[in-house]
Amino acid sequence: MGNPESPPADAPMLPGAPSANPGAAIYVTQPYMPPLEEFLPYLREIWGSKWLTNNGQFHQQLEAALAEYLGVKYISLFSNGTLALITALQALRISGEVITTPFSFVATTHALHWNGIHPVFADIEADSFNLDPRRIAEAITQKTSAILPVHVYGRPCNIEAIQEIADTHGLKVIYDAAHAFGVRQNGRTILDAGDFSILSFHATKVFNTFEGGAVVSPNAKTRARINDLKNFGFADEVTVVAPGINAKMNEVQAAFGLLQLTHMEKILAGRKRVAERYMAALTGVRGIRLPALPADVELNHSYFPILVEPGFPVGRDGLYEKLRERNIYARRYFYPLISSFSMYRNLVSSDSRNLPVATAISEQVLCLPIFPDLGPAAQEAVISLIREIAG
Ligand SMILES: *Cc1c(COP(=O)(O)O)cnc(C)c1O
User: Fold this and answer.
1) What CATH number has the domain bearing residue 151?
2) What pTM value is reported for the model?
3) Is 82 in the pocket of ligand 1 (CB under 6 A)?
């Protein structure tokens, strides 16, 4: 998948890999694939129409279906989430400094870099893993133009506090909602918060179109601008209104999304079942802390993070290695912090003394395998090893 979220290239065929879990490697995630037969009629349709991309019928249908499913009005499909993020920043003509979190997938900060924007890292909250509003407020300077928070693991940011800061200082807010597909708080969507929300439909995400993404806009005018920008800046056949990019979703991806959407109930129920089993089996295990569930939130269980605390006999990396020895590939999302990668680590805000909470969490966190088709036996292999080591 060419993405650091993918399994390590050497993962499935380690020579002499122990046989505790013979044959089947268990990855942190596995995409849900609807039956192939259900996809063939869509392909026939595409072969018949010869309309492969540029706002075809499946593209239009998926935008309408997602708007309905997610409870938002203005959505634009993209070829991936990173281009969605880059384009949203372009649409707002953001420049100068943007305050963001170091505890995310690296694309969040890269999108700033690709726009010539200076990232400023602020620390996160220990309970939500999201940007701490107090740290955002402290990081504001004359050059600050926007805030780029992430709903990490689909847990909602403190949207109200962030909006208050933005309003006070005249800042834009762009949410990286790559993990937050379908998440609801107090019964309603969180995807209409701020100036834009960005989704990713990458293969590793809860809802996937192989690769894909979307921008949720606040109104029709803004969505029209996003749609121009993702298609080279074309407003019509002969008019180019901006130096746009090519970030269009094609018809095969859109068709797969439509089909995937008809399976969402099953996908989410499967993830919930796995999360509930982990919670029941790992609560009270020595040295393992389960992050508290946020109140009034319907999670999508995109990830199952645990914190491996000093009381656990072999430490976080020890547990990660022991799982690997059994062919179980948990992932240390998000370690290392984005602020420690070479292109960012010399920024003043990257100093770990500025990021004590994010630094501590990134050294303790481990995301356990979770996906709809994770069977009980495979999940018990994960659980029993953790309990065995904890003693
Ligand atoms: C997956 C992800 C992205 C990037 O999305 P792609 O569709 O892979 O380009 C951005 N931000 C976060 C937090 C992600 O997890």
Assistant:
1) 3.40.640.10
2) 0.94
3) yes
